[in-house]
Write a structure and sequence with these properties.
By secondary structure, the chain is of the alpha/beta class. Helices cover 29% and strands 31% of the residues. It is built from 7 helices and 15 strands. It has a 5-stranded parallel β-sheet with strand order 2-1-3-4-5, sandwiched between helices.
Length: 243
């Protein structure tokens, strides 16, 4: 039996929709029929086209993803995508297939798709991925007028410089016009910590630290006075988990 799953993306952040579009393109049975930046834009399409699955952001301009699904009768299957975990309970009360937290690893995306296939009795189409493959969590960041794919586990630290942000990775340095606060919203807090108004660092990349700085690749990155207690607690907690 040939399985064709028609899906759409409703997402107002271009980097997030780019990631979902890339993931969908790598799954043969998924057929992307449209990308919309708001729920109201998608409504006319849903009224005229057959859609099996929606990848839906919770926080959207106008009507939220949660309220949008409540308004549809019947509603297609939905996988919510968001940076905020607090809506998870409400999403499952709406019988959502899954609830994916950004940044979304490819393996976690596949798990959500497989859950959809199982619930819809398409077990023969279940997708297998190589656990040792190079598919890792990443973000798309606009740098020098193009979207650049940056793997999270290759990032060393971020440094705010006036009106732009430098992203230091294991191989190069990227420059973007995102603010450091905007970047904090895109990256998982269990992997990164803000230690200064101008610096966010990757916990796993810290090679040494004092009360005044952390050391990454021989670079001494200052710990801000207002961030010292949070940084100290985070480092102690991280070291306990690591060991």
């Amino acid at each position: 039996m040939t399985i064709n799953i028609n899906c759409i993306i409703i997402e107002d952040e271009k980097p997030a929709s780019d990631i979902l579009e890339l993931y969908i393109s790598n799954v043969e049975i998924l057929h992307l029929k449209g990308i919309f930046s708001s729920a109201t834009q998608a409504l006319n399409f849903l009224n005229t086209e057959k859609v099996d699955l929606i990848f839906l952001d919770v926080n959207l301009p106008g009507i939220s993803g949660i309220n949008f699904i409540k308004s549809l009768n019947p509603a297609p299957a939905v996988i919510f995508t968001t940076a905020y975990p607090e809506y998870a309970v409400e999403s499952f009360e709406l019988e959502a297939i899954d609830y994916l937290l950004k940044p979304i690893p490819f393996e976690r995306f596949i798990k959500g798709v497989n859950r959809f296939l199982k619930l819809k009795k398409f077990e023969t189409g279940m997708i297998n991925i190589d656990k040792t493959s190079s598919d890792k969590a990443f973000v798309f960041i606009k740098c020098d007028k193009k979207m650049v794919k940056i793997f999270l586990d290759e990032i060393l630290y971020f440094e705010a410089q006036k009106n732009y942000l430098l992203i230091y990775t294991e191989n190069c340095v990227y420059r973007t016009y995102h603010s450091i606060s905007e970047m904090e919203e895109k990256i998982p807090e269990q992997m990164f910590i803000r230690i200064h108004r101008s610096f966010v660092v990757a916990l796993k990349k810290i090679e040494g630290y004092t009360t005044n700085y952390v050391e990454i690749r021989k670079n001494k990155i200052p710990i801000g006075r207002h961030y010292s207690l949070v940084t100290s607690d985070a480092l102690k907690s991280f070291l306990q988990i690591k060991h």
